[in-house]
Amino acid sequence: MSLYRDEAVVLRAQKLGEADRIVTLLTRHHGKVRAVGKGVRRTSSRFGSRLEPFMLIDVQLYTGRSLDVVTQVETLGSFAQVIGRDYGLYTAGAAMLETADRLVEAEHEPSVQQFVLLASALRSLAGREHAAGLVLDAYLLRALAVAGWAPSFIDCARCGAEGPHRSFAVGSGGAVCSACRPPGAASPAPETLVLLAALLSGTWEVADASDERHRREGNGLVAAFLQFHLERGLRSLRMVERV
Amino acid sequence: MYEGAVQDLIDELGRLPGVGPKSAQRIAFHLLAADPVDVRRLVDALTEVKARVQFCTVCGNVSQEEHCRVCRDPRRSNEVICVVEEPKDVVAIERTREFRGKYHVLGGAINPIDNVGPDDLRISELMSRLADGTVTEVILATDPNVEGEATSTYLARLLVPMGLRVTRLASGLPVGGDLEYADEVTLGRAFEGRRQISA
């Protein structure tokens, strides 16, 4: 029996049998791990509450034949409590968890950057540091960037011509100059592209000061960009409540 | 692989929740060896449950008639509705013998990752039940997990502006346990929901 210990964010929890749960974890060192939490649905379970989606945990597992088994759990960040009690945070958080689950496909392959990014985004969401919609869009853009699909919002994504540019083409990778502009490219407001660039780089003073109209336009572009690269839409994204 | 009917039975049993291929095989051979009268009773029970059991048109609980036993009972209060996720939660609450109101079964909890949104639950039916003003209190008894909590939050947002008393089941320490074994989330909830003791 090989035991290992890691930090993890709980991405999903599905019922299994009488009282067990299969949890999908995004761990710091072992990438995505699917494991069984035995008896965690019983009210007497000592770690059932720690194996809920959105929880940041320190977990000990042993390697099973198909699924690993959770043996011990300690809480590092109890984000589920706050997120579950605010519907806007819950829907935004669910979209983050689903994105992480989709972007990290292979199990047991380290994905440190995706883990750190998700844990920080959930901490920011639960701490209400910024508007939930902005935290979600910043997370989506950065998670895509870590996965190798970094969008460009200033310079032309095709020829590299110095920006800013007026057009945005999802398939081309972001902002495009007038020479590279493909048919059907969007023409968002310049402020929207400034907002998206700020979200990608983490310039929060610019993002927080942005206008509601540009945030709406920006999240439409982010959703289109995400859908293009994931090839299949996120189920939870359509339920995100944007205030 | 077994021949025809035996393999078909194993395949069908294997589709049941929590039944793996080995368990399916064990149950199939148990049925093969069982008394035909016992097997017939099982077949009748399965046929009967699909033919006669339906969902109560008022609360969504399982019922053999249009209205379930709870909705038909005139001794139960019409002023309090307890909202639960599944019919089995009704049974769990009935076992307490503490609640004398009516129920409303949502049919699940909001879970965006599994594509279950508010429109997939029996929320509009709940709102219709509240329209005539008879109900004064709604007890939100969804599961004490993050999906149940979010569903309660969503419902409370709809119900509180209607002037109803909206309550949520308390979370906390299990009766008969030791405090030192409680996890920090449960213990935190117990602190949050502590009550005053009058002498």
UniProtKB/TrEMBL annotation, chain A:
One GO CC term, this protein: bacterial nucleoid
Domain DNA replication/recombination mediator RecO N-terminal residues, every copy: 1-79
GO biological process entries: DNA recombination; double-strand break repair
Keywords of the record: DNA damage, DNA recombination, DNA repair
SUPFAM superfamilies, A to Z: ArfGap/RecO-like zinc finger, Nucleic acid-binding proteins
Pfam families referenced in this protein's UniProt entry, alphabetically: RecO_C, RecO_N
Entry's family note: Belongs to the RecO family.
Known function: Involved in DNA repair and RecF pathway recombination.
UniProt-recorded name of the protein: DNA repair protein RecO
Highest classification ranks of the organism: Bacteria, Bacillati, Actinomycetota, Actinomycetes, Micrococcales
Gene: recO
From TrEMBL, chain B:
Cross-referenced Pfam families: RecR_C (PF21175), RecR_HhH (PF21176), RecR_ZnF (PF02132), Toprim_4 (PF13662)
Keyword Zinc carried by entry: yes
HAMAP family with a match to the protein in the record: RecR
Residue intervals of the Toprim domain: 79-174
Keywords: DNA damage, DNA recombination, DNA repair, Metal-binding, Zinc, Zinc-finger
Organism: Actinotalea soli
C4-type zinc finger locations on the chain: 56-71
Record flagged with keyword Metal-binding: yes
Known function: May play a role in DNA repair. It seems to be involved in an RecBC-independent recombinational process of DNA repair. It may act with RecF and RecO.
GO biological process assignments: DNA recombination; DNA repair
GO molecular function terms listed in the Swiss-Prot or TrEMBL record: DNA binding; zinc ion binding
The protein's name in its UniProt record: Recombination protein RecR
Matching InterPro entries: DNA_Rcmb_RecR, Rcmb_RecR, Rcmb_RecR_Znf, TOPRIM_dom, TOPRIM_RecR
SMART domains given in the database record: TOPRIM
Span of the signal peptide: none
Family assignment from sequence similarity: Belongs to the RecR family.
